[in-house]
Amino acid sequence: MSLVTDAILEKLNSLIVVVNPKGDVEYVSPSAKRILGFEPEQLVGDGWWNLTRDNVEDRQSIKALTLQQMKQEALLETAPQERLLKTANGSERWILWNTSKGPLNTLVGIGHDITDRKKAELKLLEKNTELIQHNKDMLDSIQYASRIQEAILPDVQQIKNVFKDAFVFYQPKDVVSGDYYFFYQRGNKAFVVAVDCTGHGVPGALMSFIANGALKEVIIKKGIENPADILYALDDELYLALNKSKDGVVSIDGMDVAVGVFDFETQTFSYAGAFRPVLVVRDNELIELEASRYPIGFYADVKKVFITQTIEVKQDDTFYFFTDGYCDQFGGERKKKFNRKQFKELLLSAQDMEMDEQEAYLQYVLLNWRQDEPQVDDVLVMGIKF
Asked: Is 3.30.450.20 the CATH classification of the domain at 3-113?
């Protein structure tokens, strides 16, 4: 090679290696000094195979592959190959090789130094692996939280044993839910509560755990039975639970709640609601027990008013507790909300069905309504036949 050519080849960020039919390296470009730290003369003959690789098997396999390529009459076009080479100071460089037939049946390899790119790829792969593991750990934690949440929910069979018939249609938007239901029987009274916590997913689920603890404290431990008084006590419990910090910032988290108390001795149903009504179907007519326009939580500085409504219960009266997830679901031909009016009509149309059939019917209608639309919120509908 001329001095001019050598000067050009020395400055290239590429290696040029020529191998003869015997597998001996006849030529290595001057750029080997800058890229690998070896003098080109060190790498001719077997030097290329021995000095740039530590592993004997690797040396033999790459040399055998080179000889095999030479035996081909016309070198088939192959994809560029990435190879890891050892440098004179013991470090490593990634080289991307393209090979072609040269004169006198030699094989010419042109290798581009891609070490910086490869390091970036490996670093990205490492970050992706960490991210995948992090996501797996997080999903495992959420799945575990889901099992805990299912454990604190009352057994539906327990509700069915107390009433003539009942169902609970419970469909979280995510793995865990911000909707929660509570059931407790004491003496001749049964307490049924539907709760819609702020948000859904993990934040909503954490609120549901707080709701569970607060309801147990108010209804079971303190023995409060009047629905309005239960809501006042829940409001106090939630405020205490969420505002323990000393920075003076008041939490804006809260929940909508419907509280119903069935008295089997007096044959009455007492109800109070915080933004959540209860629907009663009697003789194929729908009665709505309206809620107070205050949530549990949020307005700590506002004087809230919760009112207990009591009605006499007749045989085969059916009571529906529900959160807003069903009514707020988008779908249909116009991609609109299902809405409260359509929900009431749906309940009336299902009155000839058994409660298990009603649950399946509600699930079918919701699925048919939303089609490919994503679920927008947690869904909870409880049906109880007295």
From this structure: yes
Give the CA dihedral 67, 71, 74, 75, nearest 10 degrees: -20
The pair of structure tokens assigned to 169 is: 């249609």
Q: Which helix (H) or strand (E) holds 259?
A: strand 254-263
CA distance 107 to 16: 10
| Helix then strand then coil, % of the chain, to nearest 5 | 40, 30, 35
Report the distance separating Cα 193 and Cα 232, nearest Å: 14
Q: Are 296 and 258 in contact (CB under 8 A)?
A: no
261 vs 310: CA distance, rounded Å: 9
CA distance to 235, 285, 304, 355, per residue, from 260 (Å): 17, 20, 19, 19
Q: Quote the pTM value.
A: 0.74
d(CA 156, CA 237): 26
CATH number of 153-385: 3.60.40.10
Distance CA(332)–CA(337), nearest Å, equals 8
pLDDT values of the chain reduced to their tens digit, one per residue, 386 residues = 554 455 555 556 789 999 999 999 999 999 999 999 999 999 999 999 999 998 888 888 888 888 888 777 665 556 788 999 999 999 999 999 998 888 888 899 999 999 999 999 989 999 999 999 999 998 888 888 888 888 899 999 999 999 989 999 999 999 888 999 999 999 999 999 999 998 777 888 888 899 999 999 999 999 999 999 999 999 999 888 887 655 555 566 789 999 999 999 999 999 999 999 999 999 999 999 999 999 998 776 789 999 999 999 999 999 999 999 999 999 999 999 999 999 999 999 999 999 999 999 999 999 999 999 999 999 999 999 98
Cα–Cα distances in Å, from 378 out to 50, 83, 177, 198, 228? 65, 53, 6, 11, 25
Domain extent listing, the chain: 3-113, 153-385
